[in-house]
TrEMBL record:
Membrane topology: Multi-pass membrane protein
Residue ranges, compositional bias (Polar residues): 528-539
Region (Disordered) location: 510-539
Domain Major facilitator superfamily (MFS) profile: 77-504
InterPro entries, A to Z: MFS, MFS_dom, MFS_sugar_transport-like, MFS_trans_sf, Sugar_transporter_CS, SVOP-like_MFS_dom
Protein name per the record: Synaptic vesicle 2-related protein
UniProt subcellular location: Cytoplasmic vesicle, Secretory vesicle, Synaptic vesicle membrane
């Protein structure tokens, strides 16, 4: 394997502003066996690599940047995209198809139909933090594999549900497994060089679109002949393919570094370098062993407290507005324009609650077009996120959505209504993806999965609440409903601007502790609570 000298650059160096103090014990280790101790003034001996770090030491961040984007990342992109399409997009899209079918076939009242969707979000909300904690404690690959197998098992069982109560419980358990899907983004981001990270995570949205389109096409073929049970079973089978491909996935080298597995970290980095045909950095890999990982209290340290609270509101607003717009779109299109909503509602109230309509070919076509409307938002976000930064991108997305919502007050016609709804959905979906870029970047490796998991959980809270606004409140006042969505996104735009940290052009942080940060700035100092060692032996 070829090796090269690698000098750290300012892009991946750590500054005092990026780190905070902590009470955790961290061990700094290396992987070279031949060391030349250097005597300090107080008689303590440290390796030569620590005294002169620029040429002889490197971190995982430096290795990922030196190896660059190549064949390995392309494979990882496809596998991560498969998880996103099969475990997330398809299982979420099936809610739009399953609910009206069971409404007619089992003669369910409206509240039971709505509960079929809500129970999935309840499962996702309750499990997101748990999957994040598992991924920080036991590895990203471990958490992802368990969540996928969980979803596969209960997804197939859903097809055999004999009565409503069974399918309600089983779909809730499917939602519990789906809550672990965002951890695929955590694993994915930790293998991406800085310049490619934002673009690659944003392009995962393409796989979301592929998954939803595939689910609609599958429904067109399966529903008329085999029925909804076979649709549930066949929709879960792509997860089996991902479960098999999981054996190819390596564990995150950043996680291995933090858990003290230097041999695995080096082996993973060498594997990436070999597949990409790139040289490995020459020198000593710095290992920061931290046993205390994935703790909720670390999200509320002075350095991250405001970031966590603001991100929770941003993710809540994203899901609240996105799923709200999906529900409102159906209402607006069926009414013809905004001003006709109230009169149409009076007609609907007179109908029996058991009245049902099966999905038609035209309905499936509308579902496809609605999905395709998100592509412009992803393209715009892709173009601006590395130009104006993550914070401003999220703020702009929220502001455009809020502005389009207010324009609906004008009682516009069907064509203008369609344009405004598509623009709003394009930008809110792009803002959602920008949040997926920002969140793994802002948290350190020790709490990255937990941070993303808790944010995802808050998003599900927004998804649970939004039907009461987009459907229940809409019956009373369409204008009040629009004010709620517009106001929420306006506040989220302000919250995005007030985020303390901009992650554009910044490497992923390995640890949040001051001792580790000082070590990366000047590795020659001997800090209390930090143990330096070579291949596990303490100096």
């Amino acid at each position: 394997l070829r090796v090269v000298k690698f000098r750290r650059t300012g892009e991946s160096s750590r500054s005092d502003e990026d780190v905070i103090s902590g009470e955790h014990e961290i061990q700094i280790e290396g992987v070279r066996t031949e060391l030349e101790p250097v005597e300090l003034e107080d008689g303590a001996a440290v390796p030569k690599e620590f005294a002169n770090p620029t040429d002889d030491t490197f971190m995982v961040e430096d290795a990922v940047e030196a190896i660059g984007f190549g064949k390995f990342q392309w494979k990882l992109s496809v596998i991560t995209g498969l998880a996103w399409a099969s475990n997330y997009a398809m299982e979420m899209m099936i809610l739009s198809i399953l609910a009206p079918q069971l409404h007619c076939e089992w003669r369910l009242p409206s509240w039971q139909v709505a509960l079929l969707t809500s129970v999935v979000f309840v499962g996702m909300m309750s499990s997101s933090t748990l999957w994040g904690n598992i991924s920080d404690q036991y590895g990203r690959k471990t958490g992802l594999k368990i969540s996928v197998l969980w979803t596969l098992y209960y997804g197939i069982l859903s097809g055999f549900a004999p009565v409503y109560s069974w399918i309600l419980v089983l779909r809730g358990l499917v939602g519990f497994g789906i809550g672990g899907v965002p951890q695929s983004v955590t694993l994915y981001a930790e293998f991406l060089p800085m310049k490619a990270r934002a673009k690659c995570i944003l392009l995962i949205e393409v796989f979301w679109a592929i998954g939803t389109v595939f689910e609609v096409l599958l429904a067109v073929l399966v529903m008329p002949t085999l029925g909804w049970r076979w649709l549930l079973i066949l929709s879960a089978l792509p997860l089996l393919l991902f479960a098999v491909l999981c054996f190819w996935l390596p564990e995150s080298a950043r996680y291995d570094v933090l858990s003290g597995n230097q041999e695995k970290a080096i082996a993973t980095l060498k594997r990436i370098a070999t597949e990409n045909g790139a040289p490995m950095p020459l020198g000593k890999l710095i290992i920061a062993r931290q046993e205390d990982r994935g703790k909720m209290r670390d999200l509320f340290t002075p350095h991250f407290r405001w970031t966590t609270l603001l991100l929770w509101f941003i993710w809540f607003s994203n899901a609240f507005s996105y799923y709200g717009l999906v529900l409102l779109t159906t209402e607006f299109f069926q009414a013809g324009d905004v001003c006709s909503i109230s009169s149409r509602r009076e007609e609907v109230k007179a109908k029996c609650s058991l009245t049902c309509e099966y999905l038609t070919e035209e309905d499936y076509t509308d579902l496809l077009w609605t999905t395709l409307s998100e592509f412009p938002g992803v393209l715009v976000t892709l173009w601006i996120i590395d130009r104006i930064g993550r914070k401003k991108t999220m703020a702009l997305s929220f502001f455009v959505f809020s502005f389009c919502s207010l324009l609906l007050f004008l009682c516009v016609g069907r064509n203008v209504l369609t344009v405004l709804l598509f623009i709003a959905r394009a930008f809110i979906s792009g803002g959602f993806q920008a949040a997926y870029v920002y969140t793994p970047e802002v948290y350190p490796t020790a709490t990255r999965a937990l941070g993303l998991g808790t944010c995802s959980g808050m998003a599900r809270v927004g998804a649970l609440i939004t039907p009461f606004i987009a459907q229940v409140m809409l019956e009373s006042s369409v204008y009040l409903t629009l004010v709620v969505y517009s106001g929420c996104c306006l506040l989220a735009a302000v919250a995005s601007c007030f985020l303390p940290i901009e992650t554009k052009g910044r490497g992923l942080q390995e640890s949040s502790h001051k001792e580790w940060g000082q070590e990366m700035v000047g590795r020659g100092s001997h800090s209390p609570g930090v143990t330096r060692s070579n291949s596990g032996s303490q100096e």
